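I am hoping you can look over what I have pasted underneath with an eye to the fold:
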Amino acid sequence: MNEPETRIELWKRLLQPSSGELLAELETGDLHRISWLQALRESWGGELVSAALELVEARRRAAVKFPLQESLVADIAGVEQATGALTASHKAERFKRLAPPRIHDLCCGIGGDGMALASVAPIRAYDVSPLRAWMCGENLSEAKHAADCRCEDVETLELEGEAIHLDPSRREGDLEGRGRGRRAWAYRDYKPGPDFIRTLLERNPDSAVKLGPGVDVGELPALERMEVEFIQESGRLVQAVLWSGALAENDGQHTATLLPGGGQVSGLPGPPPVDSGGRLDRWIAVPALSLERSGLVGSLCREHALEEMAPGLGLFTSEAEAPAPWFTSYEVLESMPWRPRRTAAWLAERDAGVVDVKTRGGAVDPEQARKRLRGKGSNHFVVFVLRLGRKVIAAICRSPTSGQTPGSPGSFSG
């Protein structure tokens, strides 16, 4: 028996009623008590306890991604790489409209997408990792779906004219499914790689390929019908999807999607209007990450009279509040040259307490600036410290009035 099979047998033991007591202890116990863990290893065996620890931690991390799957079978890396239930359900809706007789889920992992796709049509799932293929089968069965999960190298499959969902690996891993190695950021480093993906899509036009949200769209294959969608879930940019054939509902366009809620906009990417003089109006608007990443900020800016404050800054200004949920709008109360003492004094006079500092382009260290500006009062302010041409300004704003907060409280990725 080879090593991957041995590990599967270990995980199968975890799902037996006899291991329930061990899992319950680990779920409620203090994992920092070394002596307690050592006693468990002596009673249950070191390998079983290690696998149980992995399962308990994986389920803890999966609680947000899979809120209805309390009995999810997964390791930590499997949860990290899996599509969450909300995004998976959104993607499955396109397959539902296509109404295929069957869907092939390639590189299925633990079955994050597979569980949603199986609610639409019968699926056949494949993964090169025996452990992941087995986990996918267990999770499909737990979700009351027929489980046809196979351990196969997808590059050996001969599929023609099928509906396909492909999730190429973006991490180095091994056949045991650990896969927690170096992350592959470039499309050319995906496994299976670009040549396989192009051939697969040519033979199976009605397909979807899961991509990293930072993918260089220029590296993707040029297909007869294609659309690239950027999906943002609860303020985080979670993935991009290459849709092809009949699944490309906005042919030749980019699409930005906000979940939950399902806000969506499609169009052709293009640059936004820019005020080269560094104008600052009554409002500062921060675009949603999916809108920014899809390149569709420009069309909404032109529609709503927004201008970029400086070339490449990614922040916009206007006399009217920008449309939610695509922008988070901050009302400007005062602007001044960036002088920490002067800005802090203005805030102190207005009973400032918590002060969030936001910047782009490294104009200031937001953590240090926040400490210098924080007051003892009760009012919450947001200060943008921005380089506009040769000058650095502080724009003091109210807390955001609407929209999804698209970045971390301290800074933006530009």
User: Anything to note?
Assistant: The chain is about 30% helix and 25% strand. Confidence is low (pLDDT under 50) at residues 402-414. Residues 46-65 form the longest helix (20 residues).
